[in-house]
Every structure is written in C-alpha cells, then in structure tokens.
Amino acid sequence: MMNLEFYRNLPKKECRECGCEIKEQHESYLYECEHCLRTHEE
C-alpha cells in the first residue's frame, strides 16, 4: 500500500514549453505536450 501512496503523491508532469499538464502513458519520457511537439514538427 505504501508504494501506491508514493506514486499517487508524485507531482503532475508539466510541458517544458508551455507549462500545461502532460497526460502521459506508462513509461512515457516526453517533456513536451502533444501540442508543442506538433508545433516543432511543422
């Protein structure tokens, strides 16, 4: 149970570019949100 509490208390990951919360999936190493990533691709 203590392990779950640790993960629940981790801060939300924020985009380096715009500061929005990143809705990440398991083992995601992204540091930018989808919007900012698309902007860089153009």
UniProtKB/TrEMBL annotation:
It comes from the Bacteria. Pfam families: YhfH (PF14149). This is YhfH-like protein. It comes from Psychrobacillus insolitus.
